[in-house]
Amino acid sequence: MLAGAHGCGKTIFAQQYAHEILQSGGKVIWITTEELPSTLREGMNSFGWNIGRYVEDHHFVIFDSVSPTRLGLSESIGHMMLGLDPTGMLIVITEEIRKAGADLKGPDSFLLVFDSISRLLLACEPKAVIDFVSCLNSRMENARVRGFATISEEVHEEKILNSLLFSSSATIRFRIREGNNSDANHRERQFRVETMHGRAHDDSWKDYEITKSGLDIMI
């Protein structure tokens, strides 16, 4: 789970990681609930991550949950479009993981991105979304595949947020702080691997900047 305030760089982090997976010959499934597929592609292209050929050869597959909600294109459900329905989404994602299984050559050969869980929470009952995240996490662990789900912390109750984080295998936390720089507009961006169940990890905060070529992380 990529957790942090809106606009802190969670989606860019996922896009950058996804591009690296694609460059290495892997496959990415991206569920978008907040921005149109065209906006997603344009955003990635603006950082120099040209994904056109990956879309054409079906290595980068986008499932659109935005258009049906905004435009009422219910007749297009099932044609790379999904309704904001946790059960239906779980069925589609599980099938995509199953189909990719034969081609998996290691942990870096497949990535699932769900951007974002927040939009699903605003449209559905919280318990249904928590159950969805828990089931999805279990199925991904069983298939030994990786994935990111983004969530904006400031728009949800703490109890719901904690339940979602508990249902995930790991949490990467992002934060923006007012810097000590004399420039009033200067902000410090940091992230850390906060939890990673069953694995030793470095949980210290790392500084990062959003540049023209993506996230520049100071390690």
Would you write up a description of this structure?
The protein is α/β, with parallel strands linked by helices and 219 residues long. The chain has a single domain, classed as Rossmann fold (3-Layer(aba) Sandwich), CATH 3.40.50. Helix content is 38%, strand content 26%. The chain has 8 helices and 9 strands. The chain has helices spanning 10-23, 37-46, 52-56, 67-71, 86-101, 117-123, 126-143, 158-166, and strands spanning 2-4, 27-32, 60-64, 110-115, 146-152, 170-178, 187-196, 206-211, 214-218. A 9-stranded mixed beta sheet has the order 3-2-4-5-1-6-7-8-9, sandwiched between helices. Strand 6 and strand 7 form a beta hairpin. Helix 5 (86-101) packs parallel to helix 7. The mean pLDDT is 89.
H/E series, N to C? EHEHHEHHEHHEHEEEE
The name CATH uses for the topology is Rossmann fold
Average residue-wise pLDDT: 89
Say how many strands there are.
9
| Low-pLDDT regions | none
What share of residues are in beta strands? 25-35%
Rg: 17 Å
- At the fourth level of CATH, the homologous superfamily is P-loop containing nucleotide triphosphate hydrolases
Cα distance spanning the termini: 21 Å
Assembly state: single chain
Number of domains: 1
CATH class: Alpha Beta
Helix amount: 25-40%
**Largest sheet composition:** 9 strands, mixed
The number of distinct helices, counting runs of at least 4 residues, comes to 8
CATH-defined architecture: 3-Layer(aba) Sandwich
Q: Can you list the strand order of the major beta sheet? A: 3-2-4-5-1-6-7-8-9
Net shape: globular
Structural class assignment: alpha/beta
